[in-house]
Write a structure and sequence with these properties.
Length: 68
Amino acid sequence: MEASAFLFRGWVWLAVTDNLEGCKQRYDVYSDIAKTYGEISKADYISKFVEEEKQRREKAAKKNKRKL
């Protein structure tokens, strides 16, 4: 095999690998968006979010009291 053919194949493999990695990253982002949209679409999402925020604030308040 000629060196130029070997280099070309290596370059093509690198380009394909980079393209696949980009596709995987985009897939991860879009699937996260879809998951979040699905959660938001549920009727109890807002109440769940409010409850989690309330618990987070209570935990932060307890932490601040301990520091004082």
